[in-house]
Amino acid sequence: MSDARTSLSRREFMVGTTALWISATLPRPRTAEAAAAGTTPQTLDATEWKTVEAMTSRILPTDDAPGAVEAGCVNFIDKALGAEDEAALPAYRAAVAELNRHCQQRFERPFADLSPERQDSVLRDLELGRVEGWQANDAAPAAFFQTVRMHTILGFLLDPRYGGNRDYAGWKTIGWPGPVHALGGSQPDQMLGTRRLVPIWERAKPTGHHDHD
Amino acid sequence: MKTTEIKDVCIIGTGAAGGVWADACTRAGLEVVALERGPQLGPAEFMQHDELTNIYRNDGFAPDWRDTVRDAAGEEARLGRSTLLAQCVGGGTAHWGAASWRFREDDFELLSRGGPIEGANLADWPIAYDDLAPYYDRAEARLGLAGLAGANPVEPPRTAPYPNPPHPPRLATVALERGAKALGYHPFPLPVAINSRAYGGRAACMNGGQCSNFGCPIHAKASTLAIHVPAALATGRLDLRPNARVTELVVGADGRVREARYIDASGAERAVRARTFVVAAGGIGSPHLLLASRSARHPNGLGNGSGLVGRNLMFHIFSYAAFELPGPSMGALGPNGMLAVDDLHPSDPKRGFARGAVIFEAAEPGPLWAAFKANDYLGGSAGAWGKPLKDYLRRFPYFGGLISIGEDLPQLTNRIDLDPTHRDADGIPLPRITYRSHPNDLALAAYFETRMLEIADAAGAVKSWSFDFKSTKGGTGHLMGTCRMGSDPERSVVDADCRSHEVPNLYVPDASCFPSSGGYNPTLTIFANADRAATRFLARMKQGTEIGLAPSIIPPPSPRTPLHASKRTFDETPLGHQTLEPRR
Prior knowledge:
The structure holds 2 protein chains of 2 kinds.
Chain A: H1 2-13, E1 14-15, E2 18-19, H2 29-36, H3 46-59, H4 68-71, H5 73-81, H6 89-107, H7 116-128, H8 141-157, H9 169-174, H10 188-191
Antiparallel strand pairs in A: 1-2
Helix pairs in contact in A: 2-5, 3-5, 3-8, 5-8, 7-8
Chain B: E1 6-12, H1 16-27, E2 32-35, H2 43-48, H3 51-56, E3 67-70, E4 78-80, H4 110-114, H5 129-143, H6 171-182, E5 188-189, H7 228-234, E6 238-241, E7 245-251, E8 257-263, E9 269-279, H8 282-292, E10 317-324, E11 339-341, E12 357-362, H9 367-372, H10 374-378, H11 387-394, E13 399-406, E14 415-423, E15 429-434, H12 439-458, E16 463-467, E17 506-507, H13 523-543
Parallel strand pairs in B: 1-2, 1-9, 2-6, 3-15, 9-17
Antiparallel strand pairs in B: 3-4, 5-11, 7-8, 8-9, 10-13, 10-16, 11-12, 12-13, 14-15
């Protein structure tokens, strides 16, 4: 089954014929180190940050539960693009600028200032690659969209040490208690749902291996 | 390092086969050096691994791995990281899922029982199930298997119970058992090499949920890292060298392998001499090393007179059924999976394909894994974002999975060779994978996918959906067949003792020697067969009939020869009109 997982992740790199820009390098320890330095922008400028954050807000929107904005996905992206994903930064920059130019031309305002409905419509066009007059030739719209989508998912679901999933917003939303081995494992009654596994955010601090809740 | 020192045995790779040999040989009093390409990892590193490092990419275990892949000869291969293998002390046993099976009797007699299949290169094994049975017993005891003997209606005969009881179920297991029984199957506890209670000096499983692709932070999961290598080290006779990347085996004037050349962690070229060499680098690494070890005597690669080194590559073909239960699955808790269905494994020509597969429950180990399945759940490659994606992710606690390990048929054209274009950082040609599934494999995978979706539906799933793995190449740690075992030197690379037909002190006891893939996770069979080969090697040595070790023919230590600056041009093998050693 491990085999299956690897295949899946590889397949995820290719959506249709769209290769993600982050397929060659991915956030690893350097991203965590960058995230440890704080949540102020390190890589993206203010406009880029705002634009990317607006995109993430539509990819995992906020409803009665936290979304990408509350989870700080853009912070994760900012740190990743300054670390293992730095190779993707020029394309990100070019695509963000082109996206805003495109929105300015069509709607007379940048992407972040559009209504959510209009943002969704623009993102759909990006995803399907049907953007007329896109001038960032090295940053195709579909690849840009898929890269931001994957980055948003990673920022939502990875360990907070990488700069996203703030206050475990992602894990709380989807019902994942945290890495179970770091929680001391689980017991048979918890595997059968008759006793609750206390999630990581309700614990004072992560317990050791031998401390079963 | 003293290059003039001659070890009794040099083992390349410390996974299942290499670990077993290191353990057996040191226990028998031999001086062993083990060269492991990867680092020494342990619980501290495993606690730092997460879905990003180990599932999104295999950075936790093979950060430097590169290979190239193509469908067929004549095509240009794509550069990538197509295989899931672990490069660390323990090899694949450090991150395996630990599902542990005995191959059945018919798995050793594919050709004679089923007859030839067009396009496939079927063969019987030169050994039978009965030859392996006592070594399966021993492997199960050593690894501490948890399972229920007699519960699999199609399992081969066995005399011993499993050493440990089955693991407790999760909610998904209970539902799947109900569903499988409703369809008339005979579900049973998945046999796993994970401690269900403290055993062998190792802790009981803490039900952490991340086994496959992950190292076990408490060594409840059996591995050569936790068992065989420490035992060998405890004898004082194992010289374990991690971060030693072997680049070439050098043959001496007597036709025997004389030394292994390797690059150490600092990038320096080194060499080690030994009387016997055991290549246990896996179904890609082993043939790759033999093919890279060319000399005038072995122009097509070491021991490759048959031309079969690297051929008959098998991966297994996987099908996967994901499902969503109406309530929690607890898919993230407990070992890999707890339930298996094997009723459909035996070959049945009425199904339109030969051979079969085992089915078992898969864990739902973390949210990223779930996120990767969103497109399939949502029914397309576009639109998997926004509210649909978020609502999908919130169903994570209800998800579960079933996987089938389909037997793939050996084909001569499926192979590993040396990529003519791409080289790694050390200048060594990358292994090139040429692989296309046999039509039989595809029909088999489709059949099992449907059966698993039926089981999920019968288990009460509110939704079940499949992934298409059939076009995947090499996305597996099950790497088999590339140094086939057989009695005919024209049609196989090693003999029934896993010894090269051509080079008398060279053994390949890993899954490279498998003539067929079995439709079961291969690792228990690697353990058992490597133990069998090592036991027979040690018996011959004790009798004084092991040619690699007989004192009269041990080559005298040569004066140390400085390694050339370029390892690719080195060839100090004097040429002569020497014949191969007589085969026995």
